[in-house]
Amino acid sequence: MNNSRYRYVIQAHVCLVRLFSGGIWASAGSLLPFIIGAYGLTSGTAAWFASVSPLAIIILTAPLGLIASRVSPKKFFAFGALLQAAGLFAPLCDSFLPLLITRGLFALGAGITFPLIPAMAAEWFPARQVPLVNGITLSFNSLGNALAFLFTVPLARATSWETTITIYSGGALLVAVSWLIFGKDRKKDKPGVPVDNQVVIDARPPISIFQALTRKSTLLLSLATLGCWGLGNSLGAWLPSYYNRVFNMPLEKASTIVATITLVGIFACIAGGFLPTYFHRRKPFLIIPGLLLGPFALMCVFFNNLVIIYLCIACYGILNAIYGPTLFTIPFEIYKDSPRTAAMVAFTVQITGNIGNFIAPLMVGYLVDITGSFLPGFIISAVISLFMLLAGLLLPETA
Model-level pTM? Predict the structure, then answer.
């Protein structure tokens, strides 16, 4: 099968990896009440279950970026996909620390696969299709999030929370094995020569990780990701518990409501890939979410009214998903002649984004322990999300 047709085999595996990684990542919020009960944890301590994943990515992303620039994408992606199945060992964990280790190994796998995905899209697909391909890929991540919010609590009640983690991780393992069989690196005629209107990944990155970190565009993208990922992870980790403990909703209903964020995100991701390509604009898809994400997030927690909650959560979900394809397409437009350099920038952006992912749930959890209220943490997270607005205003138009 030639490259132009085999790209869809590659993309199918990429989408399935994002599906299961999204489900495993999002399940943390619904599992927290079960884990707190099983180990007798405080909110602050339990928050480490949601925060250890981004912490592992923060620590390891820079060296992973250096390794990724020098090894076969197929092999490195396979290694990451296999690590995402580390939750298979959850039933063997008799204390909280081993459970955190399995979560950290999952995060290491996610830290390997996530930044490789837009690089693979740039390698396998024509440049004009990359934003749409990135949007479709992210829609599978949103689908995984939604399925986790919908089914984690019922599965945990019907079986156990350990079994639920095992089921999700088993799916990740099956996809990893399939990739080992069917995945491959793209055939190239000559390094650096376009083939079928696509850009072939160059052999060596022209800039270092440090240089990428210090560029204005990378700093702005990193701050935008820090703010919005932090807000999203704080809501995903604590909103089900907030609705359960503050609004007295059953946990199943609270998780189902939060699933709305990712259900609408499935279609918003695809729109986020199509619309910037159609209008030949990138900046509006950062500016508008940057302006409105925080206010809609706060309205989700201020009003104990189901109509308002569903409306605000749906709006938040659309805004939270629509910027993703643009955010991870911009580096590949800035460095359009060097997808591998752009992948290094994506690794760098992921570091800072996961600082937000790491800090925000912990901040909310510990502030709950200190103040007895979820609101201080949610408000701080909403304010920090304004970094996306700043990035949208200051970045150049790259379309």
Answer: 0.72
